[in-house]
Amino acid sequence: MSNNYNFFAMVNRMKMIDRWALMHNNSKENIAEHSHSVAVIAHALALIGNKEFKKSYNPERAALLALYHDTTEVITGDMPTPVKYYNNEIKNVYKDIEKTAGERLLNMLPESYKADYKPLFEKSEEDKELWKLVKAADKISALIKCIEETRMGNREFEIALKSQEEKIKEINLEEVKFFNENFLKSYYLTLDEHTK
After folding, report:
1. pTM beyond cutoff 0.85
2. 67 contacts 35 by C-beta, under 8 angstroms
3. 109 alpha carbon, distance to own chain's centre
4. How many CA atoms, within 13 angstroms, populate the side-chain half-sphere of residue 163?
């Protein structure tokens, strides 16, 4: 008799969880789309670190961590940033909720698979430097969303855009600075400007 494990079916539901729920969006973004964006950027940041700054990151591992970084939101939903970080008490309670959600998802796997997926939900010391890249990529992805919305005339994202631009400037990673100087400006361009 075979068992029925729900882990992958739950992960598939990432596409059901919308981001930016408190704001009017010209284009909806779900956490599956966001996680793909973060994975692409985290992979790029790791490559930049290796090629430009003689680091020894594992770019594929960075992409994998990024793909799963918001998976717990299939259980918790996407809590808006102003609420999540309103004060330390709420922030700490939410971290506990995320931890519980991660454990719940892991329990939807066969026992022999849990050790493989556990590091994707619990930030291990061995992945510490990669998680910094994922966090930076997450912020860059949020900035890109703000750029896209404001470029389409959505004033709802104007303050968020300025806030995200400041947050990116404050990230003290040479990989992020390189990405900003060499790749980020393109997101402000129209398709016609890209193809000139």
Report:
1. yes
2. yes
3. 23
4. 10
Alpha-helical runs (H) found in the chain: 7-12, 31-53, 59-68, 73-76, 81-84, 88-106, 111-121, 128-151, 158-170, 174-182, 191-194
pLDDT tens readout for residues 80-97: 776 677 788 888 887 888
**Using one digit for the tens of pLDDT, what is the confidence trace for 112-148?**
999 999 999 988 888 999 999 999 999 999 999 999 9
Strand, helix or coil for residue 146: helix
Check if the beta carbon of residue 49 is closer than 8 Å to that of residue 55: yes
For residues 97 and 26, the answer to whether their CB atoms sit within 8 Å is no
Distance CA 126, CA 123 (A): 8
Amino acid found at 64: L
Q: Token pair 């506990």 is at which residue?
A: 96
Report angle CA 78, 83, 87 to the nearest 5 degrees. Answer: 135
What tokens does 101 get? 């959600």
